[in-house]
Amino acid sequence: MTGSFANSTLGPALRQAAHGVDVPEDPWPGFARRERRHQRTRLIRTALAAAVGVALVGVQTNVVPLPGWAPGIAVAATPTALLDAPPRGALAGDQAWLDTLRARITADPPVRIDAPVGAWKIGDSDRIRLIYGSDQPGHRVALVAVPLRFGLLTREALVWYVGPAGAGAQQMRYSGHSEGDDDPVMTLMRAYPDRAGFAVAVGPPESTVMISGEPRYTPRGTVEYQDIARADGGGVGFAVLPPEPLPHEPVVRVSRGDRVFFHGGLGGGPYAGLDPTGPEMDALLVGARLPVRGTPLDDTNLRNFVQTALQNSHLAAGGATVRVRWSGRDNGQAAALLTVQPAGGGVIAYAMHGDDRTGWYIDLRLLLPTEGADQRPIGWRVRTEDGARPATGEVRVIAPPDAARVTVTVEGAPPATVTLDASNAGTTRVPADRAATLTAYGRDGGVLGTTPLPPVETDSSAGGLPGDSPATRVTP
Known about the structure:
476 residues, six-stranded mixed sheet
């Protein structure tokens, strides 16, 4: 009775209610469809990324060529002072010669310039430009800007080419290139023992170029240069070198007003240099061995000190005079103060220390006027032995032979007496950022000589010659 009632009365109502309920369909089939779609998308993206990656690797390693006109990412700053200037020299208007040189450079790259992996390739050959080109006695010299590409990376190199005078483009030979820095000066030197050579410097268009021969140290305590360069357009200097080994490398100075763009020596010898065992050196050392105060130098250290001074001052042994003013020990190494004087010239004081195990260091180089040079006290700032060798605040002072005492005056403070030992040497302290003056007095109390205490030179090998800067001379 009960079941029959339910079937007959409630069944239709329940079925109707059940049809009204919103029951979601099975979610799995939809999820599976979406996941298959996502997988296909990921596979396509991965494949595309892999293809692009392979292409980029191919381009970046120069396996897949990239058109020279395609844009790239510049990775090095080339000297804009040179690139932005119009071409200079007699070859600037010879378009046919330049077109042939472009084709030659493209077909026969000048040099392998290494990149992180592989090498740079020449980019758009139409962008190869002449910076400077000219005929000089016996030589044709050209400086060209060559666009380079390593995959997506780009840069420009400045490349030297040299050939005989009047040479066609095919006769020009690679002679060096820039390393992609922003130095606004390019230099080149070729010297030969049996024929004439040359030195050339190309700077900004409005600069003045000087190429020096042998220096002259004047009796008044200044250095003068024999300028052997002749101008070849604005900012270009060219010098013909004799057909024989040079005593020293020429020094180039490129400047505009008070601004110095470059000041340094040129490589490219050969150089006659100095023969430390030659008769001129042996004769020079005889005079240098005169009795001096302090611990005598052995022959090896004396010879090396004198040779270092001559090389640094660009002086030959013949005709020069060397005197050791003092010798002793510095940090357990041989040390000396000596003077070098060319015939009829000024006096250059050198303080050095070192040995054949650690090398030799220049602690002071100071050009003095000839008059009264032997009566001047000379001092230099003692430096540490590590890294850039900063000043310690300690000052080594050497008194002249006839001095009874020496005082040091620091920027207007009252003079302080320097205690001297039996070798007429002493030490005092002067802050590294303070100027000071040394004064020597005779036994009668009169002033023998006065000398300013020079500042520390950061690099005596790259700072020109003694007397070039106020730090290396006493004459204003």
